[in-house]
Amino acid sequence: MSPLANLPMIRLLVAKDWDLFQRQLAAYVGAGILALALIGSAKPWTFYLGSLLLLVVLVAAACFAISTSLLTERKERTLGFVMSLPVTPLDFYLAKIAGNLVTFGVPFVVLVGGTAGVILSTPVPDGLLVWSLLVFGHVLLAHAVSLSVAMAVESEGWNTFAMIASMVLVNPFIMMLGQIPAIAGPMRGEAIVWSAEAIAILSTQVLLSAAVIGFTGWVHCRKRAFY
Amino acid sequence: MTAALTLSGVCKRYPAFALEDVDLALPEGEIMGLVGVNGAGKSTLLRLLGGLALPDRGTIEVLGHPMPAQQVQAKREIGLASEDMRLYGSQTLRWHMDLVRAAYPRWDEAYAGELLRRFDLRAAQPLKAFSHGQRVKALLLLNLARRPRLLLLDEPTTGLDPVARAEVLEALSEVLRDAARSVLFSSHDTHDIERLADRITFLHGGRVIDARDTAAFLDDWRRIVCHGALPASVGQWDGVASVRANGSLSELRVRGAEAVVGLLRAAGADVRSVDPMNLEEIFVATVRGGGKH
Fold this sequence. Notes:
By secondary structure, chain A is an all-alpha fold. Helices cover about 80% and strands about 0% of the residues of chain A.
């Protein structure tokens, strides 16, 4: 049966996840907006505090979306109930991807948009936009990797490791960006410079995220047990 | 008559357990009880039928739908409740009812309301505030009110207090009166199975060791009490599952009692009584006999 034919069930599962997690996600968006307000006030200490808070909020939202929609479902044994509904493993996979696009994607897009708005409309240098989007790109990739591991691997230990490791790598990633003159150079200026290096990194992040998610679907549809 | 379910040569292997070469069929409208000790393969069998696990070998058909190819169509007509299946603790029973109602067009809201009253459940209460018995009843409500053609129940009465157990069994008895509905259920409690099932399947060590209708099981097996010495070879006779001596009395558990009683009398034994056995005794005798009878 084509997943398109079972679209109402996929929609139902996405709505279920949204129902379950919307309150917590609203709290993350609220914290993100506070972080943006701190960044926007453009004093050095509020800028650094706001940036740090924004990163924490993004990482927490990514981990929360994965752990509540997948790991908790497995741990609390509600997965059997969900899979007993008229769905195939592919429907479940598509629902989880779509559900995460909503539960993580909504705060993510709000915060990306908010960050761009703050950078462009306040005294914060506009050149910071490219650098910020690359950091957001890393969080997106880390979320895709963690989501894939959560779908493919049942071990709680490996899942925790994948989440922490991929998110913590944002630190060396930021340091690496600082070592690339074509990215670090324009950060303090008013010009938004999309260098070849920046485009290459962002494209790699987006393509890798899509590839990881696609490969996970292939793995998931070959699983032999769903409870 | 069409089959509610058929399994042919089904195998499912896990690192510490394997379900081997299971052939089983349940005609539509009948009730089959699965009897087996822990780890016999009852839950695995029910998960395979419910589409929660895929067989390594063999074919499964549920209500005419090959599994897993047509699992969506099959699952639309199945109700599956298992002992280890949980609902969302943070959400109310009403939330779960709305979710299931959206997934099953045959959901019967009036019947759901009736079950709420009968099971004394509060729809507005979050599941985390439910006792174990209430959770079991809530899961049963969500399955029964979708009006399934096939009901798969894994240990539906395990861990329930006597009152909750009676309520669940009454609800099940009512469901079972619907001649169009087929039920496969497992239970540790052989009394439940003896009371409700038309057919019984014994599972042991991942294999079906016997499967027949309930009346045939109960008619076939007898407990024979004899006085005096018995031939040394009596334990090897056809149909004799066990022999236990207690002083001058010996108790035999046999299948096909008429022939064994004849042989005992011919050997000079004093047969004092021939009594029916209950399902639990029959199951134990079958397992000890390796299912060879």
